[in-house]
Amino acid sequence: MHSNKNQIKDNNKNNNTFEADYVLFLLVSLLITMSIIFSYSLSIYTVEYYGYNQFHFFIRQLFVGTLSIFVMWIFSRMEPDKIVNQVGMGLFILFFILMAIMPILPNSMVTASGGANRWIRLPGFSLSPVEFFKIGFIYFLSWSFHRRLIEVPRKIGLRQEFLLLAPYFLTFFVVVFIIAFLQKDLGQVVLLGGILFILLIFANRSYKVFVSLGVVGLFALIGLIVAAPHRIQRIFSWWAMVQDGILSILPEWADNYLRIDELPEPYQVSHSLNAMHNGGVFGQGVGFGNIKLGFLSEVHTDFVLAGITEELGLIGLVCITVIMFTIVLRIFKISGRVENKIYHLFTIGIALMIIIAFLINSYGISGMIPIKGIAVPFLSYGGSSMLSMSVAIGLVLSISKSVDMSKKVR
Question: pTM score, two decimals?
């Protein structure tokens, strides 16, 4: 029996086929299961307010969560060469087109948020194209960087380097226009910009490019904020909460220039912090939190971490954080061992997407940065976010089949 197992293992090595990383699969499935549970626990006020059935959100999230786990499992059984390129490039092309045509779709086919069309209405559900586009965008960058950048030496002039990168900048500017201006979703632009910037590092570009891009990106971010009154209002709301603490450590003369009176009250973040404070170490217990009772609008979506922390306490938040970072580290581990350069860049991009989204959301609800409507990966209520993330993890699991996870990184 022992010799048979060794023979199977040797055959797998000879065929460059290994088992998918089922630790990653189980960790993601655990977070999805938590999301299903808290879609019921945290949505009680929203259910009563809109007159829904008490299981309205639970049933929807149960269906999407089950489908997401099934998608991950199916992808994990498939060879990466048969699926990653087709799915990755298909997502990039299809959802780029959908985002581009959303402004001209009739009102009956789209759902607006903040005055912008962000969801396409389909029978029985709504679809957010940007969630799926992010996966395709990461694959497009990985595929294209491998073809055009990785083998180009760093020691070329800055002008030549920018000419080399010009097609990517043009593509990204089009994406910025669609997402930031037409859909008014700056958070997704920041996330995609961060991924593009970091992947350029792994694509062997010079430090001069990163300094230049950093300066340009900072001014572009300021310009996007100034161009939209609702973003300025959000900055003011955040500054109202943190200005006392920041000004207390600055020279007295700074108070005359930086202190702003009559700022809007940061109600959402204040209630979010109260929820985390009320949770203490061990939490109020699942179903016994108070912040969901109308203090935060739809806490099961963007503020799900605050709601979970009130009910599971600091221990629950720490466990979720550990699971999230373990997922990211597992993906980086796969990336460090895979030989295919496209898969290497793609898995790095997926890991970055997860951790940047988690940090933007967690920093926002704790008041460290202005709040942005970025979903918590695998936890926030919403079919598009969860299903797209399951596709991303499914592709990573497929790639892990070409990797010997037992060997050390060279």
Answer: 0.86
